[in-house]
Amino acid sequence: MRRLGWVLALSLLGSCSLTRADREACQSHADCRQAFGFGFACGDAGLCRPVPMHPRCQSTYPADLRAEGFGDAFVVGSIIDSTVDTHIARQNAVRLAFTEVRDLGGLDGREVGLVFCTNAVEPRLDDLTQTEASAAVAAFLEDELGVPVILGPPSSDAARAAYEATDEALLISPSASSSALTALEGDATDEAPGRLWRTVAPDALQARVIADDLDMRGVTSVAVIAQDGAYGTGLADELEAAFGGTVERFTFDSASARNAAATDAGASGAEEVLFFGSQTSDVTAFVLFADSFAGYADKNLFLSDSAANRDFLRDASAASGLFDRIRGTRPAAPEGIVFDAFVSAYAAENMGANAELFSFTAHAYDAAWVALLGATWATLQADGALTPENVARGMRMLSSGPPFDLRSSNYDDIAERFRLGESVDVRGASGDLDYDPTTEETRAPVQVWRIAASGDDIEGVYVVTP
To answer: Domain range spanning residue 398?
Structure first.
């Protein structure tokens, strides 16, 4: 794995005396963390050194990870687009899970923490695209900080970039739903678990639901505008395989190409135009384009989960005249006591904010808890060695056995089962976390949605259960 040459003056997590760092020999990052605390790494010369701050990783939880007790802490990286309110809400859900475990005293007494990073396109920081930024911060988190787990990135293309930029780190995305990600790894086993996990189900069912919805409404020809990459291409491929009508595909990989594709799709003879893009900003731009292009005057639009959020409704409000001709699909809205408890706890920790208004917050909360429970198993059954592989083995212990709701009040009972070498069957805020032992993926209901008459909310039309 290539090393990143970030030349900065500040250390990652605050200043610290180097009285011993210039003579402390090391063989691994863990040696330096034990000697000096989190934020130190083993350098190429075999000596401990402070890790320089990455411009895209500006905050941590708790604020000072170099405090006493964090030398052997379970510290996880988090990657979101910090310019998107929905992503910030997901990060707050992750923080909530870690807060709950800290309030319980940590993992069998071991501290936990987070390093927050952004993959936003931010010219003030660098000239990286979102996928390039995802790869850069993922490599930094693994190579420099030695974190065993990274939560995110949110989109499928960004998740693939982060996966390909790392060698060992475990990735758990709450929202990267492309079926194309499945092919990145072979069959998993207890001896050789995978390192790319998700708390959202792959898109295969979503594509079938879209095709069935089109058939049910008598639509026989569609134009598909698909973003080049894992999400757009993957979902378009799945739809073409499932839909019995005519499909004309238009692809894009830039803003200008997106507008060109929207022009061609609008001018086509298709009855309905489907837009598959992983970024809410692209979906928003497409709808704003369609609102002002005559070719869409009589066409319905079909969107996917990337549009089912408050960011889209707010930013596309100038095109609200189109809203009654839009429908889409997304993972079905969570429900039940675990979800209700999560929403209430989220509100209590975030000044009354409603997690239900933002997509995949429950999935982000579950992703954090899945990592924490995997680490709990490793703490109790792998001599405390929190390697990515051991954490993944622990995550494979969450889908069979006595049922437990994923609530902090059940943590001690789950940990006791792990201590006895037993597995558990966990139900999360987003639903059942029944991971297939071979693919390490879940299945979940899909909802067909539309925009409420008020224009400020997403409402369900019907739900399809796998």
So the answer is: 58-198+362-432
CATH classification of the domain holding 149: 3.40.50.2300
Q: Considering only CA atoms, which of 416, 431, 417 is closest in space to residue 366?
A: 431
Rounded CA separation 115/141 (Å): 8
Considering the entire predicted model, what is its pTM?
Answer: 0.90
pLDDT on residue 23: 60
Angle between helices 411-419 and 361-381 (to 10 degrees): 40
Query: Could you write out the DSSP letters of every residue in 392-432?
Result: HHHHTTSBSSSEEES-GGGHHHHHHHHHTT---EEEETTEE
CB of 107 closer than 8 Å to CB of 408: no
Question: Do the Cβ atoms of 365 and 344 come closer than 8 Å?
Answer: no
- β-sheet bridge partners, residue 272: 222, 300
Q: Give the C-alpha separation, 411 to 100, whole Å.
A: 10
Question: How far, in Å, CA of 159 to CA of 173, rounded?
Answer: 7
Q: What is the rounded distance in angstroms from the CA atom of residue 435 to the CA atom of residue 400?
A: 9
In this structure, how many other beta carbons lie within 10 angstroms of the beta carbon of residue 270? Answer: 21
The Cα-based distances of 272 to 3, 183, 211, 221, 314 in angstroms read 48, 30, 12, 7, 24
Compute the distance between CA of residue 296 and CA of residue 40 in angstroms, rounded to an integer. 56
Number of domains the chain contains: 2
Q: Give the Cα separation of 375 and 386 in Å (integer).
A: 6
Q: 88 lies in a domain?
A: yes
pLDDT band at 5 (very low <50, low <70, confident <90, very high): very low
Q: How far is CA 412 from the centre of its chain?
A: 27
450 and 319 assigned to the same domain:
yes
Distance CA 394, CA 77 (A): 18
DSSP 8-state secondary structure symbol assigned to residue 189: -
pLDDT tens, residue by residue, 411-456: 999 999 999 999 999 999 999 999 999 999 999 999 999 999 999 9
CA 120 to CA 405: how far, in whole Å?
Answer: 34
Is the domain of 457 the same as that of 329? Answer: yes
Q: How many residues does the chain have?
A: 466
183 and 80 in a single domain? The answer is yes
Evaluate whether residue 352 is within a structural domain.
no
Residues 261 and 305 in one domain: yes
Tens digit of each residue's pLDDT (9 = 90 or more) over 81-119: 999 999 999 999 999 999 999 999 999 889 999 999 999
Contact 332, 304 (CB under 8 A): no
Is 68 in the same domain as 170? yes
> CA-to-CA distance for 90 and 67, rounded, in angstroms?
26
